Amino acid sequence: MTGSESLLSVHKLRKWFPVKSTALFGEKQYVKAVNDITLDIRRGETLGVVGESGCGKTTLGRTMIRLIEPTGGRIVFEGKDLTGLNEKQMRLMRKDLQIMFQDPYGSLNPRMTVGDIITEPYVFQKMYTKKERVEKAVELMKICGLDPVYIRRYPHEFSGGQRQRIGIARSLALRPKFLVCDEPVSALDVSIQSQIINLLMDLQQEFGLTYLFISHNLSVVYHMVDRIAVMYLGNLVELADKEELYRDTAHPYTRALLKSIPSLDFREEHRLRAALKGDIPSPINPPKGCVFHTRCESCTERCRTQTPPLREIAPRHMVACHLYEGQGKLVEQQ
Amino acid sequence: MGLLKRKNDVYSALIEGAEGVAYTSFYHDAMRRLKKDKIAMVCLFVVAALIIIAIFAPFIAPYEEDYMDVGNELARPSSEHLLGTDEFGRDILSRIIFGSRVSLMVGVVAEAIAVFIGLVVGAIAGYYGGKVDAVLSRIIEIFASFPHILFAIVVMFVLGTGIMNVFIAIGVVGWTGLARVIRSQIMQLKQKEYVEAARASGGRNMQIIFRHLIPNCLSTIIVVATMNIPSDIMYEASLSFLGLGVQPPQASWGSMISEARKFIRQYPEYSVFPGIALIVTVLAFNLLGDALRDALDPRLKNL
Amino acid sequence: MSEKLLQVKNLSTYFYTDEGVVYALDDVSFDLEKGEALGIVGESGSGKSVTALSIIRLVQSPPGRIVSGEVLLQGEDLLKKSAREMRRIRGEKVSMIFQEPMTALNPVFTVGQQIMESILIHQHKSKKEAREQAVEMLRMVGIPAPEKRVDDYPHQMSGGMRQRVMIAIALCCNPQLLICDEPTTALDVTIQAQILELIRDIRERLGTSVILITHDLGVVAQVADRVMIMYAGKAMEYGTVREIFTDPRHPYTAALLRSIPVIENKTERLHVIRGMVPSLSKRPEGCLFHPRCDEACELCRTKRPELVTMADGRQVRCHKYTDEWEGQHNDRQ
After folding, report:
1. Which residues form the domain of C69?
2. Domain holding C283: CATH number?
3. Which three-class secondary structure string do you get for A18-43?
4. What is the pLDDT of residue C326?
5. By C-alpha distance, which of C160, C167, C159, C215 is closest to C39?
6. ipTM for the complex?
7. C 137-166 residues with CB below 8 A of A?
């Protein structure tokens, strides 16, 4: 199913948000939400992005489809450089690049009917006649497991899971090739979560979609995706196929993340121990050197001063950590 | 309504069973809440009655607006003139009935002008932010810093007297409050994910403003406008009282009170009756505004 | 059998709204021994938070009202206490921490002042002593450099730190019962692990009983001794962690456990519980779970099941474990 052909790749993608500086003559400060990230998404695969709050995973997803303008770097989609497109060209490209959101309440306009919400992308792209649009909406609702007789209802008359289905129908309306799923199940109840996860997997099969699946929940990501990218404070720290990542975890942060998942194993000796001390540092003033060194158990003098480059320590297994110096080849010369 | 109906028919024709499905829009809900509010329903009745009186004034009023019953000036209430006559022998009841036209027109037209300016300025400032917002916000502040009535008087002097100019003067003075509310609301709304979704499928700024932002401000607009109408009516009355508004022989409650002031000792009822009309109207709109706020948007409680 | 700290008997809390009566909590009973940790698990609208609020009598009223039941804390019925007595009990005997540590703290006071306030209300101490105790409390909940952090404002702290402060406030009068309502839902996984470890640690060191309310079965497995599974305002199953996780008897519990993605599990598709959580004002006839249950039969559609206590002491609210079921099941085949 997963082809080897690249659908979308980002090269040294960067998004720095300026922060209002407190000092009058101080150096201009930035939140480095996405800091020189290079990765490649292949057609038909699902790439998971995991990380804790403030790691920049949401910004990465939005910057990839230019919903947020990047500060630097390139985005290449099907061989075209998206960063070079003007507003009009970009608007046409949006048919292929869609996004779905976390919050089933904030992502649907409360003053619009379900039909209007689902068909809105056609209005923006000036596609189809009114009648065709309604037909399309009916079809999309059926695909997403909603009964089309409710087409005139308003979002507040639906439950969270159904609203998320409406959101999915809307993001599929333009038949995109690439879909960013930003925490699509985090706001849902456990019993509804599995319905939506299964729906997303079925849709991928049916429409040959490529997903960027953003989540803080490692178990959900592990279930959904082919490869996992781990982010910490705006930096990519590890990227590998999911089995490889789980089996041969390389980066100390990834290891800590995996250890922190509360498992269903209730036995006393298997109970969870905090794997990491301390808090996530502020993204405004990230630590020098390796961003993770303040919480890392294997931290050396070098980690405090030098940023580790991303290196390929095994086939298709990238990690940014000084522990693996000399192993594999450098992916990106810093 | 016709438009809505047609749209529904498209659905019903295409989807089997769709016509049988009940649905409640946000406004259905609001209406249901409003219907429970007894004071609101009384106010709504008063306002509806006023509108009917204003429209059918020539049929309801016993006399013409400018008919002078010569020899019967400053008459006490009688069966011939229910509320008496003024110093020219004109029937006060008829003049109050005709005066309602001016007051309601001020409420509607002047407030429409104010809503238009306030919405455009507020939406642009809130949506674009940054420098645009800084400039527009300063303009709002400059307009808001003049004493309203004084500013209206200046505008009336520049434009000259006349009913149209009253509307313009009051509209130009009264938009700042709404602009501020709309600006802050749009600033919040533009962060919503559905706005982001619209941009992700290629929505233009204007499409987003008109499809997503303004419809979600509508309840605020309705509430603020309803609550502004009474003060607009009062401004008109004040301007007419000062002789700057409606010109004789056209009747306005403000100008009637102004004229009646000369006879307040001998004939207090002459000024009392238009005053009552003014108070009832203003009160009805004010209370209706409160009720609408509660029904449409409980979060606006502290507005 | 050790001594019972808390006994909740047939507790029901309804909300009287314009749309009708919402049966948020319907006839729930459980008890808690000294030093024990009980996990209450459920989805949104299952009544798990209302349970906690009913115990400490903080249900919004109106529209909410505790309509029946008893909440016995060391034999004394909390539902019969006056508002004044209740204020003393909250904090001294029972404390609660909430999901959102930002909104639970007052942004205009330092965390030290907020801890001291709680100490000064309940204990006869001077300001200086209270401050010393506040520093001690912060040290106990694992805040580094507590002498300095005691003068921080809530916004100067991270989410995990704020939750630690909340726990410090809750513990400063050494309560016998700590109720945690989704204590880690707003936190990151690595921070969640820290907080869960802290809660477990407090239990061991201070012997505090804990009620942990969460939607996350994993969190319960890590902290609780016993588990109550709630659905639509009713307790569906009640047993020890081992029993619930290794041998779930209620179809809902079993389905819930199968529907969570687990890393070790290699299955392609997740088990799905079809449909959605019922509205609490228009509840289905019969068993509240029957519209979503794969094993439902005629009996489930018509008769509301009672909580069945089984031979091994487990409680399950399902017709499957009654005598009536046998006949029914045979009819169906």
Report:
1. 4-93+175-332
2. 3.40.50.300
3. EECCCCCCCCCEEEEEEEEEEEEEEC
4. 67
5. C215
6. 0.86
7. 144, 158-161
Alpha carbon distances (Å) from B148 to B168, B221, B234: 13, 20, 12
Between CA C138 and CA C111 the distance in angstroms is 9
Q: What is the spatial distance between Cα A295 and Cα C146, in angstroms, rounded to a whole number? A: 19
As for how many domains chain C has, the answer is 1
Backbone angles phi, psi at A240, to 5 degrees: -160, 170
- The closest CB to that of A260, out of C192, C216, C272, belongs to C192
Integer CA distances (angstroms), A140 to A119, B2, B132, in order: 10, 28, 40
- Kindly compute the dihedral angle of the four CA atoms of residues C285, C290, C292, C296, in this order, to the nearest 10 degrees: -140
Could you tell me how many residues make up chain B?
Answer: 303
Decide: helix, strand or coil at residue A106.
coil
Q: Which residues contact C222 (CB under 8 A, 6 or more apart)?
A: A262, A263, A266, A271, A272, C196, C200
Assign A333 a pLDDT band (cuts: 50, 70, 90).
very low
Residue A91: its chain B contacts at CB < 8 A? 202, 204
Q: How far is C271 from chain A (nearest CA, A)?
A: 7
Is residue C126 a part of any domain in this protein?
A: no
C247 touches chain A (CB under 8 A): no
Locate all alpha helices (DSSP H) within B146-175, ordered by sequence: 148-159, 163-173
In a domain, C296, yes or no: yes
**Residues whose CB falls within 8 Å of the CB of residue C95, separated by 6 or more in sequence, listed in order:** C169, C170, C171, C173, C175, C177, C178, C179
Q: What is the pLDDT of residues B196-247, one digit of tens each?
A: 999 999 999 999 999 999 888 888 888 888 888 888 888 888 888 888 877 7
Percent of chain A with pLDDT over 70: 96
* Residue B202 zone, left/alpha/beta (φ > 0; ψ -120 to 50; rest): left
Residues of C in contact with A261 (CB under 8 A): 189, 218, 263
- Of C82 and A278, which is predicted with more confidence? C82
Contact across the interface for B215 and A111, Cβ inside 8 Å:
yes
Residue A280: what pLDDT?
82
- Residue-wise pLDDT for A141-187, tens only, equals 999 999 888 888 888 888 888 999 999 999 999 999 999 999 998 88
CA separation for the pair C189, C187 (Å, rounded): 7
Please give the residue of chain A at the shortest CA–CA distance from C184.
Answer: A262
Do B232 and B110 form a contact (C-beta atoms < 8 A)?
yes
> What dotted CATH number matches B37-302?
1.10.3720.10
User: What is the pairing mode between strands A6-19 and A317-319?
Assistant: unpaired
Contact C34, C207 (CB under 8 A): yes
Give, in order, the Cα–Cα distances in Å from B274 to each of A107, A113, B46, B251. Answer: 52, 47, 16, 10
Evaluate whether residue C60 is within a structural domain.
Answer: yes
In a domain, C141, yes or no: no
**Is residue A69 within a helix (H) or strand (E), and if so which, with residue range?**
none
Burial-class residue C320 by CB neighbours within 10 Å (0-12, 13-18, 19+).
Answer: buried
Q: Which of C198, C270, C294 best tests the A interface by mutation, with the highest count of A CBs <10 A?
A: C270
The model carries a pTM of 0.84
Under a CB-based contact definition with an 8 Å cutoff, are residues B84 and B72 in contact? no
Residue ranges per structural domain of chain B: 1-35, 37-302
Q: Which of A46, A57, A190 to mutate to test the interface with C (most CBs of C within 10 A)?
A: A190
Distance of CA A82 to the CA centre of its chain: 18
Chain A positions touching B26 (Cβ under 8 A) are 110-111, 154, 156
